Amino acid sequence: MSAHIRPVSPVFVVLVCLAFCSRLSSMKAASICTNGQTGCHFISLANLFDRVIQHSARMHGISNDLHSEFELYFLPSKNQIGRVSHNCHTSTILTPNGKENAQRIAREELTEVILKLLVAWRDPLWHFHQDMAQHHEFNNFSSNKSLEMSDMVHELRKGVQKVVEKMQMLGIISPSIGNLGTPEALLASDSAEWRLMNDYDLLYCFRRDSNKIQHYLKILKCRIVPEHGC
Amino acid sequence: MTPTAESLEWEQCSTCCIQKLERRLQHTGELLRRHGSIHAKDEVKEATLEPHFTDCISRDLETFRCWWSPGSLHNLSTLGALKVFYLKKDSPSSEWKECPEYIHENRECFFDSNHTSVWIPYCVQLRGQNITYFNEDDCFTVENIVRPDPPVSLNWTLLKISPSGLSYDVLANWEPPPSADVGVGWMRIEYEIQYRERNATNWKALEKQPHTKQTIYGLQIGKEYEVHIRSRMQAFVKFGEFSDSIFIEVTEIPNKHGLVPFTLVVIFGIVGVLIVILLIVISWQQRLMMILLPPVPVPKIKGIDSEMLKKGKLGELNFLLNGGVLDGLQPYAKELYHEESWVEFIEMDKENEEGGDKVDNCNSDTQKLLGLPHRNINGLSVISHPDDDSGQANCYDTDLPEHDTQMLIASMLPSQPENHQASLDAPASETGERPLIQTQIEGPQTWVNTDLYAQVSNVMPSGGVVLSPGQQPKIQENTTGSEREAQKGGKKSEDCGDNEGIEDWKKSEPQFQLLVVVPEGSGSTTKNNAQQTSTPPNSPVPGPGYQTIQPQPMETKPAAMTDGSQPTYILPESPQSQLFTPVADYTVVQELDMHHSLLLNPPPSHSPSLCQPQHPLKAPMPVGYITPDLLGNLVP
């Protein structure tokens, strides 16, 4: 066996090296591209936008499913939006409530809204997942979806930040967008209002906000890169 | 809350039924609430005759409309009697406002884009003159009431027809609804196509997908299909209206007929040919194997049939090796050894009275070896006479050597005939000149299945050779042996002094002894191997069951003997003294003579004259044995 492994192992090592080297080269190409060269299109902005839009659509789908499942358990006596005081913690964020509004505001503002929303939902969803895992009356399907939802919020935020960086690099938007990873932004998001919400309201609010994010991203894409799909 | 039918059931049931009904009703109500449908309220409101909203729908996520119904109170059905107020909960201090746009013909309130805010809860209510009809279920958000318009421009193209010509695939394509602003990306719509046969009742729904074209598989030729499509927002549950139906029908295409049966014929033909080839290969397997892989010739020994060996017929094998004494087999044996010149066969007489194969062999061989002239010896080929003898007067009877040789051979072959017949004596008496070497053989001697060889177990000091017995010969002694001997001695003037070996077979015990005695001083050139020596009956006996023949020049030879060598005839012992000792199973062949015959004792080299002088034995010879160093004694 060792005799067979010996000639194979160097070949294997070479293959692995090739794979890694290609990756490194591509990454190097990425780093080269960030120097501001305009001819660098290894991943186009439209492609990036498509990816984040698909991601947000999936996130919204999951939130919708979870919300529907919660209705089976909670059976609200009223309509799903019956209560007047549906006080979502993200209500403080000013969001455009229509197509014209979303088209009218500046790109940077729209992008900032998206990022704010994404940042605002990171912690609440994580805690929601913890609650779901503890309460065993929920089946594994819901628990997996909650975990997936919290992960997707995290991933989507990173993706949108990448898109923003690319847009800033391409000069589409001004770099005046505050980095939401800064401690100030984090402090702002940590308003702890969401701790007062129950799970059902939290799901309802997130379902609404994920729909907002989805629409805003689509609007933003078609405003910035209106080639195809718009 | 409960419809009329439900109320009837409720009255008729017992307590458990009541509980079930209650649960069912609760669930139904909750389901209705969950989907935000206000349709169930119609039934409720009709029962209570309240003015209510029938539906609120948005088509493009930018505007929405609400329709109301005055209920059963007809006095409110007049235009303007009811007013619509809405509440937009975008701030805690929001207020009820009246419908921005009325469409009284439809009892519809239209909210344009300026008054429409997505993701903000709305509540609508009807107000009469003094009464406000409000239901909390009439609150909603715009994105939840979106029902897109159906797609437009639904069309289809034929993709392909199956090779059998029975089914086909169709690609349907359409345009998104114009009201939905898909281009800007404001709405993301997914579509659902449904189709059915012309006269069927159930629609078949394909999978929802967001693209503007979809393939319908498995439609059958000759049938007409009806297709329509509807749309909805992704990740939402409310579908829009169905589009107008289109009809799809594909008739048969006749020019495709020829291909299908042709291909079928080709396929079946190939399969049939393969089957035929397979059958041929199976049936002719052996022949094919012979042709392709011819058998390799195995080594064979001439004259020995492997089949015979397998069957274990050792007797026949012995017979064959003996030379095929039987008449029937003799030519076979001769054919076997046809090309081998050194093989000469004993041709035995047919007059073997015994009848048995082995018995005949033994009988004749033994008798001839012992010089019993009962047989008509013909063509003794194994032991051939020297040609020289024929020219002169018989130094020795031609028969005698044959006898002798045959007897000797018989002695060599332990599988000897059982009986030595008394008839042996008869020819001896006839040919008085013969040096009769008459063994004790008289009477039936039955040879029982003796082996091919006899081993010399011991050599007597007197010269006799003791052979270990192979089988059990029955030997009866010849009482007249001594007489014959005397006769022989008298008559044998011309005798060339055969050195004849006499073999004794004693039958008293199942022991077979072979005594071959070399006559002393007998320089007779016997071309035959037979040297018969006879021992006087009073020869010392090595042991019981033993008969030795000692070489003694005791016989009176005629004066005609040239060299004075006297053939000595050693007669076997009298039957009284029968000594039995275990005799070996085989004799040792000394050498081949010039005629390529097996010699127990090599003949002394002498002049080619027939009548060879008797060679006196210079020294006494060991019984039955002429060692090579003793050869010189025999040579004249």
From TrEMBL, chain A:
UniProt entry tagged with the keyword Flavoprotein: no
Region forming the signal peptide: 1-29
Keywords tagged on the record: Disulfide bond, Hormone, Secreted, Signal
InterPro entries, A to Z: 4_helix_cytokine-like_core (IPR009079), Somatotropin/Prolactin (IPR001400), Somatotropin_CS (IPR018116)
Localization terms from the record: Secreted
Metal-binding listed as a keyword: no
Domain of life of the native organism: Eukaryota
Pfam family, one: Hormone_1
Family: Belongs to the somatotropin/prolactin family.
Protein name: Prolactin 2
UniProtKB/TrEMBL annotation, chain B:
Compositionally biased spans, kind Polar residues: 469-481, 522-536
Compartments where located: Membrane
Region span, Disordered: 464-562
Biased composition (Basic and acidic residues): 482-495
Major localization class: membrane
Transmembrane segment boundaries: 259-282
Entry keywords, A to Z: Glycoprotein, Membrane, Receptor, Signal, Transmembrane, Transmembrane helix
Domain annotation Fibronectin type-III: ranges: 150-254
Keyword field contains Glycoprotein: yes
InterPro entries per the UniProt record, alphabetical: FN3_dom, FN3_sf, GHBP, Growth/epo_recpt_lig-bind, Ig-like_fold
Xref: CDD domains: FN3
Superkingdom: Eukaryota
Topology within the bilayer: Single-pass type I membrane protein
Name of protein: Fibronectin type-III domain-containing protein
Organism of this sequence: Ilyodon furcidens (goldbreast splitfin)
